[in-house]
Amino acid sequence: MKGALTTVPIYKEWDIVGARQSGRNMAKDLGFSTVDQARIATAISELARNIYLYAGQGEVSFEEVQGDTPVGLKIIAKDNGPGIDQISKVLEDGYSTSGGLGAGLPGVKRLMDDFDIVSNENGTTVTVVMWLR
Amino acid sequence: MNPEYQDILLAHSNDIIHRWMNELEDSKLKEYKSTISDEMIEQVNREFVNMIFDKLKNDSSRESIEQFSERIVNLGWPLGYLTGGMQSFRSICIRTLIEKIDRHDPETFLQVMDDVNQWVDPIKNELIDAYSSNWSNIISLQKVALQELSAPLIPVMDGVTIMPLVGTIDTDRAKLIMENLLDGVIKNRADVVLIDITGVPVVDTMVAHHIIQAAEAVRLIGATCILVGIRPEIAQTIVNLGIDLDKFPTKSTLKRGFEKALEMTDRQVIKTNDHDDKVVDDIIQSIDKE
């Protein structure tokens, strides 16, 4: 289990549900509380939906990580889509190019402990971690 | 098919069936064997091979192939059983023919192969077609069943309607929810609609967005939406996501939401057996006096 990497490809809308379930199961196995499981599931939902909506296809990976605190769950959402033009803009509340609420990425940033985003014309990778408290 | 070959195959059909059954014994159906009885496998194998031979004698219809495929689907056996079975059947037939025919020039060999392929391949294709269309039938039936369960609207009393939502909300379902909600509000002349999300596992920005839009649409046609069944962890994630739900009332449980709905429609629940309580109280008091 330690260091195990699970990857869920995202092609269809229902893959979002699949990614969410494997993430939630992994969070449960690692001992996260119900509230944290809900946060993790919601964050995965947002990231996977961004892949589905804006890049068409990509993948979400889950990894157990060791750090200062005992253990954490790392989620990597990766796509080869067109990339994000203004990263600072998408991290602001209420900014959306698709008529949505514009709360997705800033919301994920608040839901999780660590947040990192890399985006260029070759695609976007969002890496988030939640530590077990 | 060359009548000569056909006669050989039919004459040796018992031998072919025997060899084929033995070969299937060792096939990958073994992985499933723990759950399937040997008699069952034997019986289905026999049906399978009889069907192929019927086709050679030209007295089998497309229907029998469809029925057989349906049977395999219902048994839950893999498609590999059909394709694997056909492949080994093909090689056994070719081997039998080559053994029985005296000529061994490449020309004859190719002819035998062509003839057997022409016989076996259409059956294989029909089987696969029937198998996959059976599956897609099942899936589309389930889709319809799911859609029927998707967004029910329940009128509980004049002017108050409840929509309980259970399970994941995707784009299609969100559309259905909106349509049913608006239709139902007008049809039932509802003043208040309670949307219960107790059974929705994750509320992300998309789900929230759809709920907000639905509530706004309900407001436009003159009714009020109350969002109920917000579990504590969902409340936390909604706050973290920064979603603004203050355009309409929200309650933790359906019960509280219903009370609010009664209040909004100027009603209240009154106990009808107050009289009985009073009689009991009188008796108790009279006992106390003694």
Please provide a written account of the structure.
The complex is a heterodimer of chains A (133) and B (290). The longest helix of chain A has 22 residues, at 34-55. Chain A has 133 residues and is α+β, with helices and mostly antiparallel strands. The model of chain A has no long low-confidence stretch (mean pLDDT 87). Chain A has a 5-stranded antiparallel sheet with strand order 1-2-3-5-4, with helices on one face. In chain A, 39% of the residues lie in helices and 30% in strands. Chain A starts with a strand and ends with a strand. Chain A is globular and about 35 Å long. In chain B, α8 links the parallel β2 and β3 (192-199). Chain B starts with a helix and ends with a helix.
Write the layout of secondary structure elements.
The complex is a heterodimer of chains A (133) and B (290).
Chain A lengths: L4 E6 L2 H18 L3 H22 L2 E9 L4 E9 L7 H4 L13 H8 L2 E7 L2 E9 L2
Antiparallel strand pairs in A: 1-2, 2-3, 3-5, 4-5
Chain B lengths: L2 H9 L1 H13 L4 H4 L4 H19 L5 H14 L3 H22 L5 H45 L3 E4 L2 E7 L4 H17 L4 E8 L5 H16 L3 E5 L3 H10 L12 H11 L9 H16 L1
Parallel strand pairs in B: 2-3, 3-4
Antiparallel strand pairs in B: 1-2
